[in-house]
Write a structure and sequence with these properties.
single chain, 426 residues, alpha/beta, 4-stranded parallel beta sheet, 17 helices, 14 strands, 42% helix
């Protein structure tokens, strides 16, 4: 791998042992990928939390520097972690310290979370604690080289914003924030950003439900290739296109897609394909829409619903407003719990707007920092879940061993109020 003089200096240890170990990790990683060089990055989204019981015990015994060394730098030798070199933000975590009782937490767990947050802040990590940092201030620009984790965030900034990142891991992002470097490969490279597959969208996709179904079907078909969509008749708002990308990244491995004149990099199908013929073409019509809906509801049988989960990816203030319009003056069923997830910063805005009070008065909870699939937290006794998130409907049955209904926001709020699922594809 070709290194600049500054990169050689970091590898030689001039900036200390932690940076040296970070450079060593990035070089090993880049060489395994076939990258010929590193690229500078000033935007990292990562996780530096003790997300499991083992990691929390490790941090309690050896300290947070040792935890970072072992799990972010692949180093069994504990080294002092310096201030990060580049803008870095913490992604979603495993727990909401404000609603710890509802999540089955303990005061000791809350204390540990707050101590770790203090550590992260002390080394310069921004405590956004969300899977959607682009909603709360980290908005990379077109062409900016980033090092981001979290599949739904990666596909959003690659496609909608035109930034450049691969779906990185805890180790590579941990090394990137100490060095300001990431291997130059994959979606950092121009030619790899061209579309490979053409999707002819025949169904009139407009609602969030339909954007989720379209994304889920596209992801299943293309896997980790790059689709371009033709025939989209309605410009999606930010949360609809957010759900499309999250769905495609869940059922497949989509990290980049193109919708001509809507996403960042292509004004036409021909431009998205780079003037080449697509490797594969397929359509999304009524039959494919129904097939995706059936797949997302395959685990569900019982219509009595224990738990309604909204806000995956984390809800925008507009989505919270839509939920409140449906909830205001109503009451969540006594046998059902309603949890809505949003970034902490947006929850504070919801507090000021009175939305949190509407949700609380209805018997629901507005939560932040985590989600049921990542945090592996559900209300006690939950057997049947309903959600408007294709991503959660994809993961929750496998991770938590429960039944899951997928439907529209209206279907989900109705189920929260009645305690029964009555949704259907219309």
């Amino acid at each position: 791998m070709r290194l600049t003089d500054e990169e050689k200096r970091m590898l030689d240890g001039s900036d200390g042992p932690a940076v040296q170990k970070a450079m060593d990790l990035l070089i090993r990683y880049g060489e395994a990928l076939g990258a010929e060089k590193l690229v500078e990055t000033s935007n990292v989204s990562t996780t530096v939390v003790a997300s499991s019981g083992y990691m929390r015990d490790y941090a309690a015994k050896y300290g947070f520097d040792a935890l970072f060394s072992e799990f972010n730098l692949d180093s069994q030798e504990a080294v002092e972690i310096p201030m990060v070199k580049t803008h870095s933000c913490q992604l979603i975590t495993g727990f909401d310290a404000q609603h710890w009782e509802q999540m089955g937490g303990t005061p000791d767990r809350v204390k540990s979370i707050k101590e770790h947050e203090e550590y992260n802040a002390s080394i310069g990590i921004q405590l956004m604690s969300t899977c959607t940092p682009y909603q709360v201030g980290n908005i990379p620009v077109k062409g900016e080289h980033c090092a981001w984790m979290e599949s739904s965030a990666v596909v959003y900034i690659n496609s909608v914003l035109g930034a450049r990142t691969n779906c990185e891991g805890r180790e590579s992002t941990g090394a990137a924030m100490l060095t300001g470097r990431i291997p130059y490969w994959g979606y950092h490279v121009d030619e790899n950003r061209l579309a490979t597959d053409l999707v002819e969208v025949e169904w009139d996709v407009e609602s969030m439900l339909d954007w989720g179904l379209l994304g889920y079907y596209v992801g299943e078909v293309v896997g980790d290739r790059v689709p371009v969509l033709s025939g989209v008749r309605h410009v999606p708002n930010s949360y609809r296109i957010k759900h499309f990308g999250a769905s495609a990244a869940s059922s497949g491995g989509v990290e980049l897609y193109h919708i001509p004149k809507i996403t960042a990099e292509a004004q036409s199908v021909e431009e998205a394909l780079g003037g080449k013929k697509p490797q594969f073409s397929f359509k999304f019509g009524q039959e494919e829409r129904q097939r995706a809906y059936n797949r997302l509801n395959i685990s569900a049988k019982d219509t009595k619903v224990d738990f309604i989960m909204l806000g995956c990816p984390h809800a925008s203030i507009e989505q919270i407003w839509e939920i409140c319009k449906l909830l205001k003056g109503k009451r969540v069923h006594s046998g059902t719990q309603l949890w809505i997830f949003t970034p902490r910063a947006i929850r504070e805005l919801a507090d000021r707007n009175g939305y949190t009070q509407i949700i609380t008065d209805a018997g629901g909870f507005l939560m932040s920092d985590t989600c049921p699939a990542l945090g592996q937290v559900l209300p006690p006794g939950t057997k049947v879940v309903a959600t408007d998130s294709a991503k959660q409907a994809h993961y929750l049955p496998a991770i938590m061993g429960i039944q899951c209904w997928f439907g529209s926001l209206e279907d989900c709020v109705r189920a929260a109020i009645t305690g029964n699922w009555g949704g259907e594809l219309r």
